[in-house]
Design a protein that fits this description.
The protein is of the alpha/beta class. The protein contains eleven helices and twelve strands. The protein has a domain of 212 residues: 3-Layer(aba) Sandwich (Rossmann fold).
């Protein structure tokens, strides 16, 4: 059995590669020539260069692969040119699904995002069936992933053997970039969190997310979505866990979101002017309006999704960031 993994040099993609290799799957990875291969250095894998925007490179990468894990995405809260989100996340996904159909890929897992899942207006946890529209998508990343997911769902309706997974907020080892959640942990470890905006998150160990991809490949129903998450926490609770793990005092000053919004707009303006990422991402402040809590029972019930305690996942992240001199 041979599987192609896109986005394999990233946080979740590398975890998927590790999990596949442990189970004896022959792995091929698709990467751009300028990709950072730090997460894959320990593995001897079949690597091919290509780009989601280059259809021919995708057909070549898929040749001889029975399975496809599409994990690649442009994942950020800001970009100077927002078109990159749609070129990679939407058009790139369409190109890959078309290539998979052309070469006869037997089974596909598409990694979407929890942000494409709806949240009930009464504040309860969201499920795979909670209604949602593009107007509820805050920022280009979430909008592009919402559009990409709908493209994949249409392909599934037309017979493409694809299953969708929606990871919540993964934490753990190998967050090289780091992701926005990982950057929050690093900032906390560096003492850069004198205050915070209260919000809710669902935390999951990145290795459990990887296991969820493999389980979706084995057991997932075609055209179905599965939330890959674990425990719903408030940001204050996450900081309390990090405080116990690091000995660093958790912030006690809770700022109103509306008070930070003007600063976020100013940061956005400066970022667009200088080309440097904003210290206070506007999209992050906008998302803080929502308590991102979700019901993960479908993936637990149908796939057998592991549920590593968030304390363990956060400890892994703290140790990895320390070992690699992030903080």
């Amino acid at each position: 059995m041979k599987a192609l993994v896109t986005g394999a040099t990233g946080f979740v993609g590398a975890a998927v590669v590790r999990a596949l290799i442990k189970t004896g799957v022959d792995v091929r990875v698709l990467a751009r020539r300028d990709s950072d291969f730090t997460n894959l250095q320990e593995f001897k894998i079949d690597g091919v260069y290509g780009d989601l925007r280059d259809k021919e490179s995708l057909r070549k990468a898929l040749a001889g692969c029975q399975h496809l894990y599409h994990v690649a995405a442009h994942y950020a809260l800001w970009a100077r040119d927002s078109s990159i989100f749609y070129e990679v996340n939407v058009t790139g996904t369409k190109n890959l699904m078309e290539a998979a159909q052309d070469v006869g890929t037997e089974r596909i897992v598409y990694c979407s995002t929890i942000g494409a899942i709806g949240l009930p207006p009464d504040g309860g946890p969201g499920t795979e069936n909670t209604p949602v529209s593009i107007s509820q998508m805050a920022g280009h990343y979430k909008r592009s992933k919402y559009l990409a997911e709908h493209e994949v769902l249409q392909w599934a309706k037309e017979g493409l053997p694809v299953v969708i997974v929606n990871p919540s907020a993964p934490v753990g080892e190998g967050d090289v970039k780091p992701t926005p959640t990982g950057q929050m942990i690093v900032d906390f470890m560096k003492g850069r969190m004198p205050a915070y905006i209260e919000t809710g998150m669902n935390i999951i160990d990145v290795d459990d997310v990887a296991a969820g991809h493999l389980l979706a490949m084995q057991k997932g129903r075609q055209g179905e979505r599965y939330i890959l998450g674990c425990k719903n926490l408030m940001l204050r609770e996450i900081f309390e866990i990090l405080s116990k793990l690091t000995g660093i005092k958790a912030p006690t000053i809770k700022l109103p979101r509306l008070a930070i919004l003007p600063l976020a707009y100013l940061n956005q303006w400066l970022a667009n002017l200088t080309g440097q990422p904003p210290r206070i991402p506007l999209e992050g402040v906008k998302m803080a309006k929502y308590k991102m809590h979700y019901d993960c029972s479908k993936a637990i019930r149908e796939l057998g999704l592991p549920q590593t305690p968030p304390e363990v996942a956060l400890e892994k992240a703290v140790r990895w960031f320390r070992d690699h001199k992030y903080a």
